[in-house]
Amino acid sequence: MRFLVIGLGSMGKRRVRNLQALGYRDVAGFDLRADRREEARVKYGITVYEDVEQGISGHRPDALVISTSPAHHMTYAWRGLDLSLPCFIEASVVDADRILALSEAAEKKNVVFAPSCTMRYFPGPKLVKRLLAERVIGKPLSVHYHTGQYLPDWHPWEKIEDFYVSDRATGGCREIVPFELTWLDDVFGDSEALACVKGKLTDMPADIDDIYYCLLRYPGGVLANVTVDVISRPVATRELRILGSAGELVMSADDNCVRYTSGLNTEWTKIDLGGGTVESGYINPEEPYIAEMSDFITSVREADQSLFPNSLKDDWRVLQTLYSLEKLAETVN
Predict the structure, then answer these.
(1) Residue 265 falls within a domain, yes or no?
(2) Which of 14, 249, 273, 316 could tie 242 with a disulfide, CB 3.0–4.6 Å?
(3) Which domain holds residue 97?
(4) pTM, rounded to two decimals
């Protein structure tokens, strides 16, 4: 298979590595910035293009990997549909109506579109989902989840003013809410927005909200208190605590483990989450991203959308929750 990676920033370069790790060598890249094109060419030995149409006609890809900023995802995805090219798309936060329309059009043409859901491939969320399915803590009742990372640490090599996370529509904190809901909804079901408070607490040079407090309800009456921020420093935060009818389950990035206790047992059963291969300049290991890309390729090869665990319609539903939360926040702020 031949791939064209559209956007050669941090995620685009990661996707090039993913494809090469899976043994694919017919990989080319497109980016408007000459410095990014040159870096990808030198680091990964790929052919690069300064014009996307030149990349499509010159490289003749079998699939597109769209790793631009979220504001441009749908532009390239719809172009992919025009050409009947399957597309992998990074997590989106805008253009919900165009996402839904694309979903319906892609279904009619039977073209695979795979919106990213990387957190579902991380060992912590995978283990949490399995343990809850095994009912190790009985029926889930209440969820407390906090995730955060200091925004300037995302791309320490550039100013946040030069990065899409400083734009209000695609702001870092706003983007992470649906990113996290994608895996939380996979575990607990479709989320219902109940309340939200958001705002800017820091003096970061960006007109964005840097914290979201979200109250959600899941099927079966499960209540979830989800906090997302881009102010956690000096280390990132990821802490999940689930209270169940027969016990308690915790996922902790600080301890790199999932632990649970249930029944009359007051001792914790602890499961280490292991490590992974972390590329220089990155925070998260490569393996979940490689596994996600592998599932996309399998889905494309089999021409079967169902072989990828996330869909454009799923993304649209998650964005509806985000928009509902933000509307609720207006009544508070």
Answers:
(1) yes
(2) 249
(3) 3-117
(4) 0.95
